Amino acid sequence: VRAMTEEIDLDRLMQTLMTLLLERAGAQRGLLIRILDNNVLETQACAETSSDGVKVRRVKERPSATDMPLSILSAVMRTGQEIRTGKPGSFSPFSQDAYLVTSGAAVMCVPMYKQAKMVGVLYLENRVMPEIFTAEHSRIVRMLASQAAVSLETARLYAELLEENVQRRRVEKELRASQTSLMLGERISNTGTWRWDIDQDLMFVSDEYARILGLPDRQRTISMADFLMLVHPEDYQRISRLVTDSVRNGVSMRAEFRVFRPDGECRYILGVGNPVGDEPSVAEYFGVITDITARRQSEDAVRVAQADLARVARATTVGQLTASIAHEINQPLMSIVANAGASLRWLSREPAMLSHARTSLEEIISEGERAGNIIRGLQALTRNQTASRSRVNLHHLVYHIVALSRSELERQQIALQYQLKAQDAFIYGDSVQIQQVLLNLIVNAIDAMAGIHDRPLTLTVSSLNPEPGRIRLDITDTGIGLSPEVQERLFDSFYTTKEQGMGMGLSISHSIIERHAGRLQAAPGERHGSRFWFTLPVHDEQGEQGE
Length: 547
Hints:
Blueprint lengths: L1 H4 L4 H16 L3 E7 L5 E10 L2 E9 L8 H10 L3 E2 L13 H6 L2 E9 L2 E10 L8 H55 L1 E7 L4 E4 L1 H7 L7 E2 L1 H7 L2 H17 L3 E8 L5 E10 L8 E8 L1 H28 L1 H27 L5 H29 L7 E4 H11 L1 H6 L3 E6 L5 E4 L1 H18 L9 E7 L5 E7 L7 H5 L16 H11 L3 E6 L5 E8 L10
Parallel strand pairs: 14-16
Antiparallel strand pairs: 1-2, 1-6, 2-3, 4-5, 5-6, 7-8, 7-12, 8-9, 10-11, 11-12, 13-15, 16-17, 17-19, 18-19
């Protein structure tokens, strides 16, 4: 009994208990059966004597008819009383049990009680000595069963405690690993996490959050009011209103904004927050902030590079029309020279013919303005200047660009046809960028008709309003046309069919039209050549833009 009371390891306790039972009762075999929840029976230990002593096995199985007489087990469970049987020949209520008939064993089955509650059964048998189990054996087994019930429960609780400690240590280890991974992931992704207790106006933040905002060492809390004080003044009203409206309506919040760290450095931040719970009044928000400064700087660098590349593409396209442009500028210059000579002659007359001289001087002014407009238009196309959008007439832009290329059209004997039928021709956009698109399409059309002598060469510029609020401009030529392979890659960057081409003109033009809420497309002509067209929203006099 003392050996059992001092043992708290469940395996060793069962070893001790079953060994004592078999030795003190003179049994050959024994089973320890426990009563689990819902009165489910489970055999937890099996012991047998051998030449080497008592051998005990831990098992977890339900009692079966091949292990013991189930009629006796059922009777013990029902009555709560001990049952002993003698030699097989003697009559008893269990004489006909198949297990007893087959084995010829004498058995003893004793219930185990803990605080008047049956918690298990001890089963012993001996097949060699049928009269082995006496009243003294029964007393010893009952005493061991009583102590075993308490010791087994204590050992079970101790085993569960050990298992809980093992589980807790494993969970703590996994939690530490998870926290380490989270911190590493936050640092790699430049993302910090936060939790905002609205009632206390206190945000609990991660290490990476504190690093992104440049908070003092070990400061891991900040109020929303203090956080908003870090927001860039130009973004403050927008973010403050977003936070207020989101909390009032209990919805998620998301925004890109700038913050000034305490050291004065400006950082670009992407912030996301979600409310916690389904209550009408939200008490908490969880979220993340991501430092997107590097991404924004990269995007700015890409935009600058794209603007520079577009300027180079415009300059290259203008360079292809050098002769035509020179011709257009030469015409007003020649007119200026001629009118200046005429003015001198009218002033040299006696008497001076001032009215004629005035007319010639007015012509000089007009032609000078014309030449100046051409030069200013070319400067606008080739200079690296900030995009500026305004309400412009698309037809006027067409006339201006066609005027620049008129000499080249005449040199290649290309007939020009206008079919500008759009009633609403005003668009809202950057006139320089739209002129770049028109110039690129017209130059491409002229190049496509170079070297063709077996059919009339015609460049057609047409427009219409395919639907209210939209204008479509078509540029059609009778040149070499578009093969399916060329058409598939037509708007890809750096793809060109020209020997000296950059492969950027159509790609940039496609991007420009998209930025103006339009679409640039191309297709082979009906018989010859190709057709390029784009659609744009129109812009009425009240400043409303078509959808």
